[in-house]
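Handout, section B. The chain below has 285 residues.
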Amino acid sequence: MPPHPTTIVALLHGPDQPGLVARVAGWIFERGGNILHADQHSDTETGIFFQRLEWVPARPEHSAEEAAFRAHARELGMTAHVVSSAHRRKVALFVSKADHCFHDLVLRWRAGEFSCDLAAVVSNHSDLEPAARGYGLPFHVIPVTAADKPAAEARQLALLRELGIELVVLARYMQVLSAELLAAYGRPVINIHHSFLPAFAGGRPYHQAAARGVKLIGATAHYATAHLDEGPIIQQDVARVTHRHGVEDLVRKGRDLEKTVLAQAVRWHLENRVLVYGNKTVVFD
């Protein structure tokens, strides 16, 4: 099989207006590019237009092509996020003691499902250090307590900056990242919450679900924000349960959901398929 060509991917959004699709496609055509994928969505309630484009540029200087496209988008009144498919983002996994999402993500990464570099595993406990070392991944233990949380988060932030981490994935990391850390880091953080948000936010959602007698449980992958479990949702899924299922059954079923939902969200993010606006997302799947 011939190698996949290096492409440019653009995510655009802005006020809807006639002729946007033609003008964007025409710009790529006039510069000798070849569009491989194009998808768009118009939000009729807000009047916002969203588009994802992927094309093979005629010019080898991708950085110049990306800058030129951003300028063209601005002329159209659009905001554009433009990246090269050759760029492999550096990713850090934050974990605690639960290992199911951790192992699932690492094994998918080793199988080539994620176009990224896993640069670090960060934890507030040492339980998963042998497993991380076994995978050949650097493991950093930064204990977190209520008394020293600001100092611990300062160490986390310094590590993320030192390693050039571009995405943090909270793979059942059982600590709430403060608004100050999220603002200082300033890059995406994806969290997996073990409920079908907005139901059962916060701690012990499976216990909450069992007590409420629900017939569906779920998992939600979302971007972390200053407001706990309220960030823009990327992916969700559910499983049916009955009165016969206790908390342990819900936990077991939920773990399967958590793994697949988180993996899909990470994949979509790395493939530049997620466009955030307000507290919503448009996912070009």
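Note. The longest helix spans residues 247-270. Compare this with the example in section A.
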